[in-house]
Specification:
The protein is mainly alpha-helical and about 220 residues long. The protein has helices at about 5-35, 40-50, 50-55, 55-70, 75-80, 90-115, 120-125, 130-140, 145-160, 165-170, 180-190, 190-220. The longest helix is centred in the first third of the chain and has 34 residues, at about 5-35.
Length: about 220
């Protein structure tokens, strides 16, 4: 591997880590509301959040590019705040990755929260626990496997992004060129040996991280 490959790997790990942390912070209250609410907006919102699962990445990337552009709502907001434009920047990649990987985190957390049921919450209420204490000391421990699944899926999905990150970030070395784009560049240049190294690394990484996740969840259920 050369310096460009290592730079792409480092940037991808940075992007995946930051995206996962943001998704956990934003996804927790959203997933909790979806799991507990009886609002008529619950189903339409879940459908909206699941769009990245079925839409082509280029469609999502195109509309994000329009929104982040100088005439888009996000672009006008960032420029008015003195932050400049987001397309072809690392912050733009982070925003696109958060939106694109959101369903992988939220769905896992919703499933975890729904599996808890209402009984533990009722018991906590009878002990006069505040809503925050109940969530912190009852819900979070019972949702441990859900948070692990959400973290792994969000991280792994961000690591493997291609279409969205290419349209939003382009192909700028050490700034927006992630591993998937680097592999594409190697193939385009007929550098199949280097493409094999990066692709095999991604394949092994994805298999190992999913294997460990399934082993943990299986052992957790047996306890």
């Amino acid at each position: 591997m050369d310096a460009a490959d290592l730079g792409a790997i480092g940037l991808t790990l940075k992007l995946a880590t930051l995206t996962t942390l943001i998704l956990l912070v934003l996804g927790t209250p959203l997933a909790w509301w979806l799991a507990r609410t009886a609002s008529v907006w619950r189903t339409p919102l879940r459908a909206l959040l699941a769009l990245p699962l079925v839409l082509p990445p280029t469609v999502i990337g195109f509309y994000l590019l329009v929104l982040m552009g100088p005439h888009g709502a996000i672009g006008q907001l960032t420029r008015s705040l003195g932050l400049g434009g987001l397309p072809f920047t690392f912050p733009g990649l982070v925003l696109a990755s958060v939106l694109y990987s959101l369903p992988f985190v939220v769905q896992a957390l919703v499933s975890a929260f729904e599996s808890i049921g209402s009984r533990p919450l009722e018991v906590a209420a009878t002990l006069r626990c505040s809503p925050w204490s109940t969530f912190l000391y009852v819900v979070l421990p019972l949702s441990r496997s859900g948070y692990l699944t959400a973290s792994v899926m969000g991280f792994a999905h961000t690591m493997g992004e291609f279409g969205v990150v290419l349209m939003i970030g382009g192909n700028i070395p050490d700034k927006t060129r992630v591993v998937s784009v680097q592999i594409y560049d190697h193939v385009d240049a007929m550098e199949y040996g280097q493409a094999h190294w990066l692709s095999a690394g991604m394949l092994v990484f994805s298999f190992v991280i999913l294997l460990l996740l399934y082993l943990f969840n299986s052992s957790d259920k047996q306890k």
